[in-house]
């Protein structure tokens, strides 16, 4: 499980970041938000390993349910880039589809049971 320095961006390129994190084991989540966005995520990594290179003002944050997790996306193209986790605040995951040189369709992924953590019915 290598922790290479990876470059990432949203679709339109307004948000650019780098992260030092492994990409495997990749994961999906079955909570209501993740089911809808369908992203493949890196394993969790410490906040210190994520560096925003550009686009801080282009990011929007979405919180729901317990309002602990913070999901960031580009205000222009709508692409989810990364989020701070609910189960381990201070730990982050990045959208593997945003990372340069990584083919998310060539990876297998586990599914985290985020639905079980919901305090709101059908969330």
From TrEMBL:
Record flagged with keyword Zinc: yes
InterPro entries in the record: CENP-V-like, CENP-V/GFA, Mss4-like_sf
Origin superkingdom: Bacteria
Record-given protein name: Aldehyde-activating protein
Entries under PROSITE patterns matching the protein: CENP_V_GFA
Database matches in PANTHER family: CENP-V_GFA DOMAIN-CONTAINING PROTEIN, CENTROMERE PROTEIN V
Alphabetic keyword roster: Metal-binding, Zinc
Every CENP-V/GFA domain range: 6-123
GO MF annotations in UniProt: carbon-sulfur lyase activity; metal ion binding
Entry similarity comment: Belongs to the Gfa family.
Natural source organism: Pandoraea pnomenusa
Pfam families the UniProt entry points to: GFA
């Amino acid at each position: 499980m290598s922790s290479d320095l990876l470059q990432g961006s949203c679709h339109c390129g307004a948000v650019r970041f780098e992260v030092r994190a492994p990409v495997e084991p990749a994961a999906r989540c079955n909570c209501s938000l993740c089911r809808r966005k369908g992203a493949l995520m890196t394993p969790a990594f410490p906040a210190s390993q994520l560096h925003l290179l550009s686009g801080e003002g282009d990011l929007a944050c979405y919180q729901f349910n317990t309002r602990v997790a913070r999901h960031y996306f580009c205000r222009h193209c709508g692409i989810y880039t990364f989020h701070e986790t609910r189960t381990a605040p201070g730990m982050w995951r990045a959208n593997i589809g945003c990372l340069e040189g990584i083919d998310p369709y060539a990876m297998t992924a586990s599914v985290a049971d985020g639905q079980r953590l919901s305090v709101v019915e059908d969330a």
